[in-house]
Amino acid sequence: MDQATSDPFRMAFSGRFISVLRWEQLDDFWDVLSQDTGESWYIYAVGEPPPQQPASGEMLKVFILEIDQLLRREHDEDYCGVVYADSLESPAFVKIFDPNNLGVSCGFSDNPPLPGWILSRLKPVDLQSAVPPPGNRRRWWRRLIGG
To answer: How far apart are the C-alpha atoms of 97 and 75, rounded to whole Å?
Structure first.
C-alpha cells in the first residue's frame, strides 16, 4: 500500500465531498463549525508547512470570519461553490478553494487544483510543498496567524 492510500489525511482528502452552493448555506455551515469551541481543528494553508497542533477555538472563529470575508469579496458570484465538506451537519474535513485559483474545482479533471485551505480533524500532511501559493495569499495567511 503506498503512502497516499495508507495515510488517513490523504484518504480523507480523496473522499466524497458536498459543495456548499449558496451563500446562505455557507452562513449555516460556518455556524455549525463555530459551535466547536475545543481545539480539535487543524487549519492548513496548502503550500505552507502543515500545522503540527490543532488551532484554538478562538483561532478557528477568527479564521472563519476572515475566510468568509475573503470569499465574499473575491468570489464575485451569486453562489458560493468554493467550499466543500465531507458533511454539512457534522463535518470532519473541509476544503476551501481559492477564488483566484479555481481551475476545474468541480466536475472532472485529471489534474484538479488543490484547495487553498483545509480544515481537518486529522493532522495534515504536506500536500504540495513544491508549488507555494501566490505571494498575496502567503501574506494574507501570515498576517492572520501572526507569522
So the answer is: 10
Sign of CA dihedral 69, 49, 97, 87: negative
- Type and span of the H or E element at 135: helix 135-145
User: The whole model's pTM is what?
Assistant: 0.79
pLDDT tens, residue by residue, 73-83: 887 766 677 89
Give the residue numbers spanning the domain of 85: 3-145
* Residue reference for cell 505552507: 48
User: Which letter does DSSP use for residue 79 in this model?
Assistant: S
The Cα angle at residue 144 between residues 41 and 68, in degrees rounded to 5: 70
Are the beta carbons of 118 and 95 closer than 8 angstroms? Answer: yes
Q: What is the mean pLDDT of residues 25-50?
A: 89
Q: In what order do the strands lie in the sheet with 18-20?
A: 18-20, 83-85, 93-96, 117-120, 42-45
Structural domain total, the chain? 1
DSSP 15: S
Give the angle subtended at the CA of 135 by the CAs of 75 and 132, to the nearest 5°.
Answer: 95
For helices 57-74 and 135-145, angle between their N-to-C axes, nearest 10 degrees: 150
